[in-house]
């Protein structure tokens, strides 16, 4: 197992490098960089993309070449634009910028945000608790609901209960997360019906003045709707996974032998089947968590005005804040690859019979 883990760790480097190369290359072809963002603001505060609507005077862009399509820099001297490019480092060739960035990343220096005057790592640490809260609670609730429901569906496979719950699961899985989030806001956050939950934020304005129990209650009061909205898709997937795992185990010979010995159905189900059927479900916990953590955070955090990593990435992409974009991409990519290795270790931990080295051989 040690050799397998070592190989996986060594593969992290080229994989992460490939991710960074592809995304850095794509960014070079995207119009409207940070220099253009500043120029757009100086020319009246309009959106940077409005400048690509028509022709205009020749100005310099990030590459230093004239650009006749961008009209946001009319009236600004080329020397000023060149100074902006130098300040952001765009006076250097793309390859040199990329190699410098990778060199800094090797020392965990992710640079400073162009527009926030704060280091990327401090910005990520500041926003991470919100996203971890969403991902952790959504994953835990999905497991707490999906496992009992999946077991019940497996035991009553083909019954009316199984049919109706399967229909409800399919509908829940088909509903986009953002649409369900908006529906929750309309129904329960003062949209058109009931004002039960707060509309935005993770805590109330008077949070610091509350008692310990008051702070806990306030936290869960605010996070209830976002967690429900981000749980819906993971809930459906886990329920069907649990059901199918139990069905596979129930049909095996050791289950029939246990029943033939006169063991009760609950002892057979929870004393024998449960342990084996739950291997794949429990071992997949890290992957499920990281999936919920990344996939739904952007939309959910934006809709509920939560200041987390998903919203940070979205705002950085809109503002072309490249240090934040590439810094978070590197950190998230590294986290995803490490979680993949942890998932494999979880499989081996819950089932020692699994041997990844022999499979590779």
Automatic annotation (TrEMBL):
<keyword id="KW-1133">Transmembrane helix</keyword>
<dbReference type="GO" id="GO:0055085">
    <property type="term" value="P:transmembrane transport"/>
</dbReference>
<feature type="domain" description="ABC transmembrane type-1">
    <location>
        <begin position="128"/>
        <end position="343"/>
    </location>
</feature>
<feature type="transmembrane region" description="Helical">
    <location>
        <begin position="132"/>
        <end position="151"/>
    </location>
</feature>
<dbReference type="InterPro" id="IPR000515">
    <property type="entry name" value="MetI-like"/>
</dbReference>
<dbReference type="InterPro" id="IPR035906">
    <property type="entry name" value="MetI-like_sf"/>
</dbReference>
<keyword id="KW-0812">Transmembrane</keyword>
<dbReference type="GO" id="GO:0042884">
    <property type="term" value="P:microcin transport"/>
</dbReference>
<feature type="transmembrane region" description="Helical">
    <location>
        <begin position="219"/>
        <end position="242"/>
    </location>
</feature>
<feature type="transmembrane region" description="Helical">
    <location>
        <begin position="163"/>
        <end position="189"/>
    </location>
</feature>
<protein>
    <submittedName>
        <fullName>Inner membrane ABC transporter permease protein YejB</fullName>
    </submittedName>
</protein>
<keyword id="KW-0813">Transport</keyword>
<dbReference type="GO" id="GO:0005886">
    <property type="term" value="C:plasma membrane"/>
</dbReference>
<comment type="similarity">
    <text>Belongs to the binding-protein-dependent transport system permease family.</text>
</comment>
<feature type="transmembrane region" description="Helical">
    <location>
        <begin position="9"/>
        <end position="30"/>
    </location>
</feature>
<feature type="transmembrane region" description="Helical">
    <location>
        <begin position="277"/>
        <end position="304"/>
    </location>
</feature>
<dbReference type="Pfam" id="PF00528">
    <property type="entry name" value="BPD_transp_1"/>
</dbReference>
<keyword id="KW-0997">Cell inner membrane</keyword>
<feature type="transmembrane region" description="Helical">
    <location>
        <begin position="324"/>
        <end position="350"/>
    </location>
</feature>
<keyword id="KW-1003">Cell membrane</keyword>
<keyword id="KW-0472">Membrane</keyword>
């Amino acid at each position: 197992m040690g050799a397998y883990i070592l190989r996986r760790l060594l593969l992290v480097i080229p994989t992460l490098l490939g991710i960074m190369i592809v995304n850095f290359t794509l960014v070079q072809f995207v119009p409207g960089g940070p220099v253009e963002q500043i120029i757009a603001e100086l020319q009246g505060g309009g959106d940077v993309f409005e400048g690509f609507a028509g022709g205009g005077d020749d100005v310099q862009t990030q590459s230093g070449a004239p650009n006749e399509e961008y009209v946001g820099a009319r009236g600004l001297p080329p020397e000023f634009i060149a100074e902006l490019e130098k300040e952001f480092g765009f006076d250097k060739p793309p390859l040199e910028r990329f190699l410098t960035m990778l060199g800094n990343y090797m020392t965990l220096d992710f640079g400073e945000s162009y527009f926030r005057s704060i280091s990327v790592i401090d910005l990520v640490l500041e926003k991470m608790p919100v996203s971890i809260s969403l991902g952790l609670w959504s994953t835990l609730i999905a497991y707490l609901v999906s496992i009992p429901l999946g077991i019940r569906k497996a035991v009553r496979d083909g019954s009316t209960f199984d049919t109706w719950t399967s229909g409800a699961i399919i509908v829940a899985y088909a509903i986009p997360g953002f649409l369900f989030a908006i529906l929750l806001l309309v129904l329960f956050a003062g949209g058109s019906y009931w004002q039960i939950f707060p509309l935005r934020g993770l805590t109330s304005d008077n949070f610091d003045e509350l008692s310990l129990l008051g702070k806990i209650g306030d936290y869960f009061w605010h996070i209830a709707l976002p967690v429900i909205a981000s749980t819906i898709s993971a809930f459906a997937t886990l329920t069907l996974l649990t059901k199918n795992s139990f069905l596979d185990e129930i049909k095996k010979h050791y289950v029939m032998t246990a029943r033939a010995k006169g063991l009760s159905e609950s002892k057979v189900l929870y004393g024998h089947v449960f342990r084996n059927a739950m291997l794949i479900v429990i071992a997949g916990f890290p992957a499920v968590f990281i999936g919920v953590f990344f996939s739904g955070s952007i939309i959910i955090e934006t809709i509920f005005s939560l200041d987390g990593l998903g919203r940070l990435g979205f705002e950085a992409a809109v503002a072309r804040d490249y240090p934040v974009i590439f810094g978070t991409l590197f950190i998230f990519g590294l986290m995803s690859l490490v979680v993949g290795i942890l998932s494999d270790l979880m499989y081996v931990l819950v089932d020692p019979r699994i041997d990844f080295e022999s499979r590779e051989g």
